[in-house]
Amino acid sequence: MHATKLSKQHWLLIVTLSLLTFVLGTSEFVIVGILTEISSSLQMTNAKAGTLVSAFAITFAIATPLVMSATSHFPKRKWMLFLIGTFIVLNALCIISTSYIMLLTLRIMTAIVTGVLISLAMIVASETMPIEKRGLAISFVFGGFTLANVVGVPLGIVIAGEYGWNATFMLTTILGGLAFLASFFVLPHRLSQVRSSMRDQFSLLTNPRILMAFLIPALGFGATYAIFTYLVPILNEMGAPNNSISIILFGYGFISIFSNILAGKIASHNAIGRLRFVFLVQAIVLTSLFWTTNHFVLGLINIGFMSLMAILLTTSTQLYLIDLAEIYQPKATGLAASLMPVASNVGIAFGSALGGIVYHQGSLMNVTWVGGIVAVCASLLTFYSYHLDKKQKTAK
């Protein structure tokens, strides 16, 4: 039996979709690094500028499933090109933005476009690839976000430092133009179209199996972000020199590239079965930070392992949600594809908040226990999902 090989056309599409997620990721994440420039330029507090980040995340989480449901019957190629064009216009308007309200409105609109485009990119990657190569394709598409954190965000911050925060949006506008050109020439003309009612779509969200599958990545991301949110204070407590923190964070981002590659391999066979143990290993890695951070080198190695574990769940849970939708509500695979990015945003918000509560109640390093416990909860949920899958297959 010969292994299926991806054609040149397949690879072109994977690279195009990865470029798109790189652009969307850069636009989403870079704002964190340029908040101080924005707050001083628009004469407001850092806390008020921070609402640009939280408003984006909240809009992304709420609007993405709603818009995906309402537009499930739209021709995918035309709809994606229209949305990329809209993204370019919104980022171009950010360049000339002169007030907080204008910038906030543009970021909220960008969040809607970003959420829908990410979901569509995942569907296209899933439905155009040979079945056994879907995991590889989706891990590459997710890899665009990893590269955005490692390359796009630092580049945007450097540009903001040299030419002002408006120039960073010039970068995202130009990158958006490149993504539009690539998508125009590479996106297939014949992509699936499903006509279904909003009721059909939202019946998916009442399915217990879908809700359980949604909670798995939410808890997985929550486990990491309970600690990652407070990584700089942890590094300070470890005695890391201030000028080395940006290098350490770059290293963290660089290691996550390998996490993304491993995510594709895990998804290639028995994904949920493997994830059960991935979360248990993650729990050990996160909890061990409580002790290893007493030693600078051991602490850094442990943080490296934390990065390696951080996004192993992405590809598997993305495919799992789409596959479950095909079983329980085939007309709602588009909505299902939007749930993983939403779950990750929910997990990030939940983990950060939970870590914050524990941090302010006692010792900073107690956040490591919180991360470990949340990872164990993710593992238990995955064990139960896997058990139900096996039971369903036996019943057939």
Q: Could you outline the blueprint of secondary structure elements for this entry?
A:
Elements: H1 8-33, H2 35-41, H3 46-70, H4 76-95, H5 100-128, H6 134-163, H7 165-186, H8 198-203, H9 208-228, H10 231-238, H11 242-267, H12 271-292, H13 296-310, H14 314-328, H15 333-361, H16 367-395
Question: Would you mind describing this structure in some detail?
Answer:
The protein has 2 domains: 7-193, Growth Hormone, Chain: A; 194-396, Growth Hormone, Chain: A, CATH 1.20.1250. 83% of the residues lie in helices and 0% in strands. The mean pLDDT is 89. The radius of gyration is 21 Å and the shape is globular. The chain is an all-alpha fold. It contains 16 helices and no strands.
Give unreliable regions as ranges.
none
**Form type:** globular
- The amount of helix comes to over 70%
Radius of gyration: 21 Å
DSSP strand count? 0
Which series of helices and strands comes N to C? HHHHHHHHHHHHHHHH
The whole-number mean of residue pLDDT values reads 89
Largest sheet: none
CATH class of the largest domain: Mainly Alpha
* Overall tally of domains: 2
